[in-house]
Each structure stands twice: as C-alpha cells, then as structure tokens.
Specification:
The protein has five helices and three strands; from the N terminus they run ααββαβαα. It is mostly helical. The protein folds into three domains: about 1-60, no CATH class; about 65-105, no CATH class; about 115-149.
Length: about 150
C-alpha cells in the first residue's frame, strides 16, 4: 500500500511539473505561482493533493506491521506474525535476492483520530444563533465536520 501511494505521489509531482511547464507565462517560477488565476487554482489542487499523500505515507510508515505476507510464486501467499519476526523481510530478501518485493508488511486499520467536540462557547453560539431545530442540526453537523476532517 505504501509503495502504491509513493508511486501516486511521484506521478502527481511529475504531472504538476509537466502541467506548469506547458503553461509558462513569462516568469521563471517553475509552477510555484502564476499570473493566471485558473493556473493558481490548479496549482493549489496539485499542492493540496501532494501534501495529503505525503501525510498519508508518513502516517503509514510510522505504524508497525502486524504480520508479513509472502508471495509463493504460484499465486498463493504465506502469512506470518510480525511479533518475534521483525527482520523477516530483510532475512527473506537476503536469501532470495531474485524475488525482492515478494514480502510485504500488513497493517491494522489506521489509528483513529481523537474526536473533537464542540466547546461550551461554540455550543452556546450555535444555540443562540439558530432559529429552528433543523437549522441547529445543520450548523452543528457542519461545525463538527469542519473540526474532525
């Protein structure tokens, strides 16, 4: 999974370079900024996506695997626990240099983020500024979504 994300990140970086090389506008910014508002929006989208991918990769790399999965060369996989086998991939790759990449770590679900609720001040402001129950529900939902994504 991490390798796929790294490939996607590299492709996005290359696409950003290519897109802005084609949209040259007279200065030597190399895509860092532009004189064209549409290009600025594309640059922001590319940069935001690159940042999100980098964060996802860093989060995955910080996790410890729970197991190893080894391809057997015939379409099947062998699984073993990560516990007491931390160096399994390194040992396997040294013994089988022609089959590097056949061992991959498996991870649990990504750690859940801590839920961020409303402060007392935010709750009071929402209560004071909402006219109807449905309006209150919509505003609370929007505020919680903003704080937790």
């Amino acid at each position: 999974m991490i390798e796929v994300l790294k490939q996607a990140l590299e492709a996005l970086i290359q696409a950003r370079k290519l897109r802005f090389a084609l949209w040259r506008h007279g200065c030597d910014c190399r895509g860092e900024h532009s004189c064209n508002p549409l290009q600025d929006e594309y640059a922001k989208q590319f940069n935001d996506s690159i940042i999100k991918l980098e964060q996802a990769i860093a989060e995955l790399e910080s996790q410890e695997p729970v197991a190893w999965r080894t391809f057997d060369g015939e379409g099947f996989y062998f699984y073993c626990s990560y516990e007491d086998n931390e160096t399994y991939a390194d040992v396997w790759n040294k013994r089988n240099p022609n089959h590097k990449g056949w061992v991959e770590p498996l991870y649990t679900h990504p750690p859940q983020r801590t839920w961020v609720g409303l402060t007392d001040e935010e709750a009071q402001w929402l209560y004071d500024n909402c006219r109807t129950p449905s309006n209150l529900i919509d505003m609370v939902e929007a505020k919680l979504k903003e704080k937790n994504t």
